[in-house]
Structure formats: C-alpha cells, structure tokens
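Open question from group meeting: does this chain pack into something compact, or does most of it stay loose? Before anyone orders reagents, we agreed to write out a predicted structure and look at it together. Recording both the input and the output here so the notebook holds the full record.
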Amino acid sequence: MSAAERARLRADVAVAGRILAPAWPLETFIAVNPLDGLEDRPFEQAVALAGGAFGARGTLDEGAFRRAHAEGRVTDADLLAALERRHPEALAEPGAAEILLADLLHAPPAPSPVRSLLTRAEREAPGFAAAIDAQAGKWCAAFVEAGEAAWAMPGRDAGFYAAWRALAPRDPSLPRPARRALAALPDAPEDAILAALETLAIPAGERRAYLQAHLVALPGWASHVRWRGERDGDVDLVDYLALRLAYEAALLDPTAPAPEARPAAAAPTPAERAARVAAVLGAEPAAVAPVLERLPADCRPFVWLDAYEEHYRGPLLEALAQPPAEPPSAARPAAQVVCCIDARSEGLRRHLEAKGDYETLGFAGFFAVAIRFQDLAGGAPSALCPVLLSPGHAVRERPAPGAEALAERRLAGLQALSGAEDGFHAAKDGAVAPFALAESAGWAAGPLAAAKTLLPGASGRLRERLRRHAVPDAPTVLGVQEAFSFDERALFAEVALTMMGLTGGFGRLVVLCGHGSRTENNPYAAALDCGACGGNRGGPNARTAAAILNGADVRAHLATRGIEIGEDTWFAAAEHDTASDRVTLLDRHLVPATHVEDLDRLAEDLDAAGARLSAERAASLPGAPRAASARAAARHVRARGTDWAQVFPEWGLAGNAAFVVGPRSLTRGIDLGRRAFLHSYDPAADRDGGALETILTAPLVVAQWINCQYYFSTVEPAVFGAGTKTIHNVIGGVGVLAGHDGDLQLGLPWQSVADGERLVHEPMRLLAIVQAPLARIDAIVARNTVLQHLFGNGWVALAAREQPGDPWQRHTANGWRSEIREEVGAR
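Structure tokens returned:
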C-alpha cells in the first residue's frame, strides 16, 4: 500500500474514533462525557446518534419518568411548562394541554434504542462476531496487564500490533485456515486493515462508518485504546482495528448470502397513541389525533427531561433570588477557608459557617498550581492538575530542617511495608507459593480478614495506629522555590487571588483546603478524589499554593498590584477527606506561634462541622444508623471508608446538578444539598473578564464532564456505566470487567448512582448560574467554541443576572429572557 493510502486510512480512523471519549485508567480516573465527540451537535441529535451507534438511551425511560410523576418529582405544571418551551405550537388548540398530558402519562412508551451500526459479522454470523469480540478483549487485556502481571506478554516491547501478529497464528482455539490467514498478515497495521476491507468488500464510501461499527462493538476497550494511543503511543486505534478486521476477514465467508435484516422494535403508531389517550379522556380518537401529530413520540422523553430538570432548577433560582443572608458579624473573619468547588465541599462550608464568623470561598482544588508532585518516598511523580493542562513544574517533598532523622525512620518504615506487601502479592501470584503462603500466614490472615469484615471501624483504627508506629510522621517541606521562578510565583498569586475574588479583607488565617477520599478495596477510589487534581488528592497543591502566598517577595509584588496582604495574615494548607468528613490541617510545624491558637480553634470547629456533615450524609447512606447523634454518625461514616466490603463508602458527586459562579453572599445560608459546584467570583475585581473566561472554559468544562459521566452512567448503565461492583474484576489497574472477560467497563459503577433500584443521582444536565454582566458573558461565549457548543446545543443550561436583586435571565438561541415559570404554570 502507498503512503498516501495509509495516511487516508489513518484520517478515516481518527474521524471514526471521535464517537468515543478517551477512557483514563482507574488509577487516575477522570470523568468524561461519553458523547464528548458529539458535543458539536444538539443534545437531542447526539443522543439519537448514540442510540443507533451504541444502542443506548439518552434519557431515563418513560416508565421511570412516569414513576417520578407519581411520586411528585415531576408535576403537571412542570410538563406544561416544558411543552410551552419546546413545542408551543402543540398547545395552540383548545384542550391541547389535557390531551398532551394524557399522552405523556398514559400512551404506549417508545421502544428502547437498537444498535444499527453493525459489522458484517454481527449481521451475518453472530457467533463469529462474539469470537472477534472475545479475541479483541483477550489480547487487549494481555497487553495492558503486562506491566503488572507476573506473566508478561511476549514481544510487548515491539508494540501491540507486532506482539499480537507474532502470537495470534499460534492460537489453537482458531481454525487452521484462520491461523494461516493471520500468519500472512502484513507488517503494517494500516495494510492489514486495507486488505481486510477489500476482502470484506466494504465500499470506499462506507469505509469510515464500517470502522466505526467495529469501534462501538466493544466501546470500553476502544475508548481506552484511544486514550493510550494519544498518551503512550504503544497501541492506537489503527492497531486495534487491524486486529478486529483481520479476525473478521479470516473467519467470515465473504461469499455467504447475507440474512434478512432484523426489524427494529416499532414505535407506537399515531393510531395506537390516539386510542389510548381517547380512552383515558373519554373522547373519540379522531378528536385527539390532530393534537398528537404535533408531538412525535420520539420527542416525549425530551419533554420529560425538560420538566424533570426544571422541577429542580426553578426552585433553586427562586431561592437564589431571595435577599442574601447576613454576612459574618465580625469586622474581620475568624478565618477564611478556600475549598474546592467540588459539590461535596458545599456541606462542609455550610456547617463551618454556622459555627462562627468564618468566611468560605470556592476555587478549583488544584489552586491554579499545575504541578508534577513527588512525595518523600520518591517513586513516580503524579500530575496534580486538570487533564486540560500539562504540569509545568516539578515539586518535590523533602525533610524539614532538623527532621532528617525522623524522615529516615519514616522512609525505612515505608520501604519495609512496601517490601512486605510486594512479597505477599508475589507469593499469591506464583505457581506454588500460594500453598506455602496459606500454611505460613493463614493463621494471621484469617482473623485479620474477619476483623476487617465484622469490625471495620475498630480494625481501621487499629491498623492506623500500627501504621503510625511503623511509619511515623515526619515534618516536611516542598521545594517550591526551586520549582517556580519569582515571576511565576508572583503571577500565580495574583491570578489565583483575583479569580477567587479574594483581593482584600484578609483574615489572620487563610486556609487552602484540598480534598481526597480514603477508601479500602475500591478500584474506583480515584473517582472520589479531586477531579481538578487529575483524580488525585489535593493536599500537595494546597501546600504549594500556601507556600507561595506566604512568601514576602510575592506579597511585596502583590502590593504593587493593589492586593494588600497584612503582615499578620498566614496562609495554611488543609485536606478534606470526603469519606470521613475529617479535615486535616497540614504543615502545622510551619505555622508561626502567633497563629497556633487561631489554628487550634479552627481545627475544633472543623471537627464539629465535619460531625454535623456526617450526620447529614448518613441519612442517605445505605445501612447507616437513622436518628443517630452527630458523634455516632461521624463514627459510622468514618468506618465505611475502612470497610473493605463496603460498596457504598460515600456517594461522591451523585446528585450534582448546578455550577454557581458568584460571591458567597449569593448562596450563603442556603442548603444546596451538596448538589452544586460553587466557584467564588467578584465581577468588580475582574474588569477585563479574564477570570470569568477562565472559570467558564476550564472549571465549568470539568464540571460538565463530571455531570455527563454521572448522567449517562445512570440513564444507560449497561453501555456507559460500569455495572455492579459485586462482579468486577480489575484488569492491570486499567479498568474493570464485568466477570472474567468481555468489554472494559466505561463510566461509574451502579453503586455510585443508585441504592439498589432507587436512584440516588437524579440524571439532569448541568445548570450554570453566573452573577456577572450579561454583555461580559456574551462576549466570552462568542469567542469560545466550547461554550457555544455547551450552551447552544443544550449540554449545559445557563442562567445569569448582573446584580443582586435583578431577575434571573435564561440564555437562549434568541438571547436572554426572563423566567416564564409562573406564567406557564398559571396557564
């Protein structure tokens, strides 16, 4: 094949692969919109395409929506308002509202989507199609596991295609003709694909769609291969498609006649809808049919979704329209605590503010320092920043002056524990060693396993005490001066303080509070950590930012820029464990003696706020004691993270539904139910709109990815979720399989969005709420394609107002408009 043909093929594969979102490995699990490649299309069109490509729903089914209506979660007024927004022409005739409501509530539901983007093997020989999927999954698993498995895949260093091509012809499970065909494959994967397409008689005009059909057959593996190809390059979608198409060409008889196409499930006919509605209303079908014609059956799920969303959004905007709560009474806050915008921080902020004269703010949890961090123990550094960014600064942890001996003890303990753990796992994976291991260690392992299962809280506390004894804490510092030049530190400080709206009125203590989640036996642990820190914990970012802001040279520069930080202000770092609701104040050895008492008081109030938050969260956690005291609830919640059998350690970001950009006065005193991302913003300090543009094009985009991951994992768990945790098998730290083979599971496990059959996450698209000049928002949207797609295509809704007291305006294709909820509800 010529170089030009190969280049055209690679271009076709790249375009076909856009239907997939890259799937990060579990160790750095990053939330993504599984339909990320379709965001340039309207939401309804994108989910319709996904229905044909993946056989996936894009909303809850109508039965679920009708149950929500029966429970009062959606009302008739909500449905009428949705019809008014989406299909006003359908309500034009007298009596139309009653007819359409009856149709939504009682007509035969539309069938579930059926995957129509199929390969020849799927159409003509389903048995061969299953064999191709099994081979693709087997070889992908062997390749990605090779870095951790005791039995490495031979030839892996040569790359995926070369290693597979050398091994596949020896597979005894294949018929001899197929093995001979595989042995004759060309050296280049592009040539293998082109030859297979010719053998399969795929016309040139259908080639791209056919490649896409193979990609969506196992979307989990294909999505991870796409990520790996863009990051590591040891395997890419061309390699993956070469494998699949080579098997298809080798197994399938291209001369066999194609079977008749299987008819898809039919949507209810207009006559069937009219008959059902007429029976409900006691009318003639001919009288209701003209009205129903104006609302196609496939539009009904989106009417339901609109109503479902507005039932939450309307009251939220009404609450935010009320006069703000009274600010703290003290002239200077007892402390200012800057939390991550993560929705789980909302509860901590609310309960801390209730304890006294505290001011809280919200900012992306990496605190604007994109770093590659290496802790005291060394090892591979972690990229602590959103995946939209590349870390440009390497920060290393080292012993604090005078603490070198203690640091050595800590390192020795870490090495001993690590060596013991590695030896234990190596023994388990060996051919004969597991029998000796059971004989020698079973007497201890058995009781320990029983204690971890039956008494997880006590067992966790005991293990933590033993670990502290073996691995003592050691004061450390971060090499911030070496990692950042003065100009970089000065720029960071100014940008960060301006973006969070903290440019004056500094308290004696300003605490930068990152977050993470400590859970045991949880492959999805990274999904509970900080998305702004690349699926890692945010403590190192908080420590780095605090060190920069405490620098005298940086403060002197800030003073020349109009940001005066008093000499008695100290920036401290902290980390919020969202599984236990504990906040740990970090680097206490660096705190001046003048601020120790302030820090101790704050620590007590953070403990009390965390206990109250635990009591609040316990009400929704399966198996948690009801009507327990705050102290008992805190004990129970903390024990869940150490329970290796617990499939509901915390709910993570389940329930997320809104992203609020504005001063704390907009939301202070309002219980947002841990459902809103809260980003602080002061329009007066952002005259050129640069801070708002950054917020809308970075943190908001990450929040939308999170929202879509939860949304699609809930509405279509079989395709975009990860199924149930109870049958998960982890593959090389990359992902999980549902059972022992098959596709790599995408998205979140069912236990992250539901308690049994009851949904905990309400699948809604994100609502962005911004308090800023509307002209500023319009200008930002006009120059950012990503925002035009999100807002213009209905992936994110936008509401805004310029000043407190102004009515909320909704962003539409025809400009800003005021709320119409009351007007429609009275119709």
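Observations to bring back to the group:
DSSP finds 32 helices and 19 strands in the chain.
The longest helix spans residues 404-429.
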